[in-house]
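User: I'm curious whether this sequence folds into something compact or stays loose and floppy. Could you predict its structure so I can see for myself?
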Amino acid sequence: MSSRFTSGAIAVLALSATLTACGSGGSASSGSGSGSGGSGSITVGLITKTETNPYFVTMKKGAQAEAAKDGVKLLTAAGAYDGDNAGQVTAIENMIAAGVKGILITPSDPKAIAPTLDRARQQGIVVIALDTPPDPQNSADALFATDNLAAGKLIGQYAKVRMAGKTTKIATLDLTPGVDVGVQRHNGFLAGFGIAEGDPSIVCEADTGGDQAKGQTAMENCLQKAPDINLVYAINEPAAMGAYQALKAAGKDKTVTIVTIDGSCTGVSALSQGQFAADSQQYPLKMASLGVDAVMNFAKTGKKPSGYTDTGVSLIAATPAAGVDSKDAAYGQSNCWGS
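Assistant: Here's the prediction. I'll summarize afterward.
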């Protein structure tokens, strides 16, 4: 639809830091960018899925802080909504025209964005995926992200211990079909809990797009289908909070265990209040800062980053579970992100 494209095309593209890099030393030997063979500023682009999700807001702040520290320019953009591939394509094209040395991106549609990433790389621009790999993954030079399979396993293992001795009825609130982050987290949860896809203990599966409102609707529908649900796996905190709201409205919030992934300050607070039982904490600030540093190093030395860098994950739990390594809410608060 034209309205969708227009909203994506006007996704924010702003100069969020205007700092001149040190003028000594050589710049990258290839690629479009400002300056060659000596002095000139280094420009880095960051494209997130949205400007509203606290996770990506935090990622942007991390990139801004690192760019200021390193003395580089940072251009930022985002889709109008999660899944806005047209907006991200427009942002990449604008950044190519602006002469960036590298693009950091959290792909909204990993498969659809790949050809545009390839075009950027063909012009000598280094492309680093943050949080979500493109499809195929080698459409980016490097990936800095949480080990999403491990994050899912941690909350699955925790839930297994918490539900010991009970007949478990599970609702899985997932992301979007085919998106690698959601698939890995879902599969990790199942592996940690010790079950396979199709296990009879899974009484409801629903996609939420990682959105709170959709998570609430999904949970309401699941409760209609299976009122005796007692364990909820949620792809992220917004979906988990939506599930909690639905459970609270149904008077079931005290009897259903919710486990999720994110580790934001809001999520850890919800965990402290008993709304969530466990939360795998990830570190978007680290992804962003490592990404900016990698582009700066490429601009100065011509050496591209490559492969996958695991930016870490920790299980934050309201109460410990025997045999499962976890941190308490105080640790979660001291290492959380967002407000």
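Summary: The domain at 148-281+315-334 is CATH 3.40.50.2300 (Rossmann fold). Residues 271 and 277 are 6 Å apart (CA to CA).
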